[in-house]
Specification:
Elements lengths: L33 H13 L4 E8 L2 E8 L15 E2 L4 H14 L25 H5 L9 H4 L3 H6 L7 H10 L15 H14 L3 H10 L24 E2 L10 E2 L15 E2 L1 H12 L6 H7 L3 E5 L2 E3 L4 E4 L5 E9 L2 E8 L5 E6 L6 H15 L4 H9 L12
Antiparallel strand pairs: 1-2, 1-12, 3-6, 4-5, 7-8, 8-9, 9-10, 10-11, 11-12
Helix pairs in contact: 1-11, 2-7, 6-7, 11-12
Length: 397
């Protein structure tokens, strides 16, 4: 058995590309051509990912490209239609459902969690629904205890977890800070949000996702695997290392039970379905304008130019452009979907490797800078490298 190093946990895939800049978005650069997107994906694969998929939509025109290998056993390339674990992009979906319940008068955004889940949290009278959605609750994230090494990830890949079991582990560690006084990214917040949705609606989170988002938007390749390791075709195979040394794609971890992450990160989708969801969200078709504005109002995360709204990451790029969307990383997959605010340019990127080398995170970050800023490749890479936190060493998102 290979030696595994302890996982180093850091904030976000894109943290370092957010630098102080003008508050207003700048005009979008010219449409990125197929050759540009291909070059960016090839650069991601060079860093160690077996394969990558990218899609860019600008002014109604969508460009899709792939690079590398989608299945190391067969040698087949990736295909844009293939599904993958979108990990914490799930949070944007779940936050949307909570806000729909707010719009229906069934949930109060600033109500204490105890009103809906009276016995779940000892501090449920102090933590509000809003604080769950923007990660200011202070709830501990027990993943740092469960997945301490690379071998832990692989050995526990088929493990079954119950949502309340995960919350109990968080509660045992106490609050990180008094609710509302600081910010700390915690998957526990969205496990609690999922339980809240189930309590208020009387049905499963999977059913609510299906009824409110998946069916109305025609998301034919999106589903919520509550407690199964299966990933039916068409699937992009996901890989992980068993040692933090090359080669990185040691183990196929496509079959992974995401029940530990549940409403915080279990969703499966593909790049086109993600585009349909985010388009509907940002175009105002899923929420009233006032609640979309709440969703897009960030709290300070402590990183320059990086904020967190209600289920959305919000970044200010070196060129002054503001992006909203979410990254996602779960064993086997790194992804991100972003919209340029004030414009209709979107990008979705996925690489089938996680955990991954720093260079992969840098390449993904530089790709987004180049896609949304009028910069040369060298300028985009330098901007992404400017902050030492750019490369998240290992992070479940």
């Amino acid at each position: 058995m290979r030696r595994s190093r302890r996982l180093v946990v850091s904030f976000a895939l894109l943290l370092g590309l957010a630098l102080p800049a003008a508050a207003l978005p700048v005009p979008a650069p010219p449409v990125t051509g197929p050759a540009d997107l291909q070059r960016l994906l090839d650069a991601v694969v060079v860093t160690g990912a077996p394969g990558a998929i990218g899609a860019v939509e600008d002014d109604g025109r969508t460009i899709r490209r792939v690079s590398g290998v989608g299945n190391l056993r067969t040698g087949q390339p990736p295909r844009p239609v293939q599904t993958f674990r979108v990990a914490s992009q799930t949070k944007a979906f779940v936050a949307t459902i909570v806000l729909q319940l707010v719009a229906e008068g069934r949930v109060g955004l600033d109500d204490p969690v105890r009103r809906y889940l009276p016995r779940l949290l000892p501090d449920g009278d102090l933590i509000t629904v809003r604080q769950l959605l923007n990660h200011t609750s202070g709830l501990f994230d027990p993943q740092v205890e469960v997945y301490q090494t690379l071998q832990d990830i692989y050995d526990l890949r088929l493990e079954h977890w119950r949502p309340r079991q995960v919350v109990a582990m968080a509660v045992d560690n106490g609050l990180l800070f008094p609710p509302g006084t600081a910010w700390s990214y915690s998957n526990t917040n969205y496990v609690v949000a999922g339980l809240l949705i189930e309590r208020v609606t009387g049905t499963s989170i999977a059913r609510q996702l299906e009824r409110r988002l998946i069916k109305p938007l025609g998301l034919r390749h999106t589903w919520f695997p509550a407690d199964t390791a299966a990933l039916p075709p068409p699937r992009l195979h996901g890989y992980m290392p068993l040692d933090l040394e090359e080669p990185w794609a040691d183990a196929d971890i496509t079959w992974f039970n995401p029940s530990f992450f549940w409403a915080s990160g279990a969703l499966v989708s593909n790049v086109d379905d993600l585009d349909r969801f985010y388009d509907a969200l940002f175009d105002g078709r899923l929420l009233p304008r006032r609640l979309l504005a709440e969703m897009l109002t960030p709290v300070d995360t402590g990183a320059p130019g990086a904020g967190y709204g209600l289920g959305l990451e919000i970044y200010t790029l070196p060129c002054g452009a503001t992006l909203a969307g979410h990254t996602g990383a779960l064993p086997g997959y790194n992804s991100g979907s972003f919209r340029l605010l004030g414009d209709d340019k979107d990008a979705r990127l996925v690489a089938n490797l996680h955990p991954a080398p720093d260079a992969l995170y840098l390449a993904l970050s530089a790709a987004l800078v180049e896609l949304f800023c009028d910069m040369t490749p060298a300028e985009a890479t330098a901007a992404a490298r400017a902050n030492p936190d750019t490369a998240a060493v290992i992070r479940f998102r």
